[in-house]
Write a structure and sequence with these properties.
single chain; 489 residues; alpha/beta; Rossmann fold; UDP-N-acetylmuramoyl-L-alanine:D-glutamate ligase; eleven-stranded mixed β-sheet; seven-stranded parallel β-sheet; 39% helix; 16% strand; elongated; binds ligand NAX; binds adenosine-5'-diphosphate; binds potassium ion; potassium; NADP; lyase
Amino acid sequence: MNGAWSSAAVRRAEAELMPQLPPGTLMQRAAAGLAAACARMLKTLRSDQGGQGVYGSTVIVLAGPGDNGGDALYAAARLARRGARVFAVPVMRSRVHPLAAAALTQAGGRLTSEPPPSCDLLLDGILGIGGRPGLPDRAVELLGRIKSRITVAVDVPSGVDVDTGSVPASAVAADHTVTFGVRKPCHVLGAAALLSGRVHLVDIGLSGHLDPHPMVRIAEAGDLVEWWHTPGPDDDKYTRGVAGIAAGSAKYPGAAVLAVSGALAGPTGYVRYAGSAADQVRRRYAEAVCTDTVKEAGRVQAWLVGPGIGADESALSAVRDVLAGAAPAVIDADALTLIGEYPSILAGCEAPVVLTPHDREFERLYGSAPSLDRAGSAAALAKRLNCTVLLKGHHTVVADADGTVWANPTGRPALATAGSGDVLAGLLTSLMASGMDGVRAAVAAAYLHGKAGGIASAGHRTITSTDVARALPLAIGQVLSGGAGQAGS
Ligand SMILES: NC(=O)C1=CN([C@@H]2O[C@H](COP(=O)(O)OP(=O)(O)OC[C@H]3O[C@@H](n4cnc5c(N)ncnc54)[C@H](O)[C@@H]3O)[C@@H](O)[C@H]2O)[C@@H](O)CC1
Ligand SMILES: Nc1ncnc2c1ncn2[C@@H]1O[C@H](COP(=O)(O)OP(=O)(O)O)[C@@H](O)[C@H]1O
Ligand SMILES: [K+]
């Protein structure tokens, strides 16, 4: 498992480590890593100019008053020594890290209030983990008029809310972020994750001093490998788990077909379908065993209820029947709306439940839309309803009732296509039926669904939900065989 640590946790680790080192060591480690990363970027950026990298490049530093500006100025001094033309602009009056500013001028860089109009690389050293959301006016003005070929955020994109990833006011949009020690929540959550661009981690020796539990967990392929139930020689189709899908209706048969397609791609050995779209499901998937109602279906190890079931009496019965049983349940789509209307259905339920709302469904359940702090909102709903919550959207988050939060690192906007949530819910149900607990199943389902979306839409292909379902087996195969770095992340 990977993770992102809060600014307070980083400061605690720093306070423990700092006294063991000569003064300034951590900042020098950060600056050295930052300068090396910038040099690599300049080399790639300027590969069309006879292989020139740092030498002869133009670098502008926007330097804030704190240590973030210090990192940026020391790194810029290293670039200046290698032949870059460096202009550093103090963005808050003339308050800048004095030693770092002196190092830059000694290396030939210039402190100025009038930078050139364009540069190869813009270093955002305005605010780091000490920053409050929003940018000073001078920074906004400078960012508006300097044209840079590449923008690199130092530690975090300035202006974002570091611990929630929300962006309530102006902030830097970076192509790359070079961060120190560990990732911060803003690199993986909310609108700030987009503003971070590609995140590069520089080791400054903090890891042994950090709280073992990150603020936000980030799934990686190795987690799924560890959690996966690979069938053994003694397994049969029942021991691998039976997934039950209560989805679709005469009006929305497609939701049934798509949810079943997601479940069939998962690790279970058997998929039962219960609902009024049985004919369509049978026609499309000979493998699915169909009945008309949840009550008529045999035993399952996990149920999905909701996609396309509508809001009539039979839909309500399906939700009640699923939640009255002992099997873990995934509640999606129309079933979320019904629970919003009749919260008592969920109150008596003892089996583990995963809710998979998008923003509008979240609002129906919680009474207000998710805030800019999406992880905080998901955790609040999970706690209130004592369930696991998978809050969909760009940068899907999974929260458990105990406050544990995961950020999903895969996925792309092409997944915003009708029915793609049905495929996700079906897959999630299969994972739960195979024995994975609700949080892990939700994390794994979001990860694989995102990866399948990447595989299906590679090369800018347009995709439908069926394409996502078809790509799931390959996504699963790549992840389980350790090929996580391949196309489609
Ligand atoms: N903590 C660590 O372990 C390390 C931190 N380092 C660097 O230090 C940074 C943190 O430095 P600081 O604590 O000095 O904090 P910052 O550099 O983030 O700046 C804080 C200063 O900016 C002002 N400020 C905050 N938000 C503002 C806003 N929205 N508008 C205007 N002014 C605002 C504050 O009043 C304060 O003076 C990190 O992000 C990182 O770059 C590195 O040097 C290495 C190690
Ligand atoms: N902008 C986006 N970027 C990445 N993924 C997205 C985006 N918008 C939606 N998704 C994903 O697409 C899926 C859509 O699910 P959902 O809203 O339930 O649609 P439907 O009801 O049509 O199935 C979810 O997995 C969601 O996380
Ligand atoms: K910054």
